[in-house]
Amino acid sequence: MKVENQVMPTPAQAMAFFGGVEDGPFVMVNLLTFHARARYEDGDHGLTGAQAYALYGEAVRKLVEGLGGTVRYSGRVTGLLLGEVEEPWDVVALAEYPSLAAFRAMAVSPEMHAIEHHRKAGLAGQLNIRTKPGEGF
Questions:
Q1: Core-most of 6, 21, 81, 107, by most CB within 10 Å?
Q2: CATH architecture assignment, domain 11-131
Q3: Alpha-carbon span 7 to 76, nearest angstrom
Q4: What is the pTM of this model?
Q5: How do the domains of the chain map onto residue ranges?
Q6: Contact status, residue 125 vs residue 5, Cβ threshold 8 Å
Q7: Is the Cβ–Cβ distance between 30 and 89 less than 8 Å?
């Protein structure tokens, strides 16, 4: 299995994701890896990557809740029982969105644009995995 963390989706990935079928609520699994030091375009702000992302995370929590969604869980990765990755992720977060349309509206909103620099400065990479609640084993 190839694992490739990214900070932003490619245009093709974004088109495939947002062009998908609308099928109601979903939970996004976020596997996050941070820079040791935040990398702001305008220089060093004296923050770690995790601290920069925390600024983004608190603001995005309010946006998610404003859409009728919720951040269900976030926690620091402390170990790996099964499988193998070169570098484990730093944090796992689960956010529930009421719909793909709501997620899209948030992603392109001026409010998201205003906080995106903290996300980009803090993240070394991530995986976003869309899941459908109640469907599985």
A1: 107
A2: 2-Layer Sandwich (3.30)
A3: 19
A4: 0.88
A5: 11-131
A6: yes
A7: no
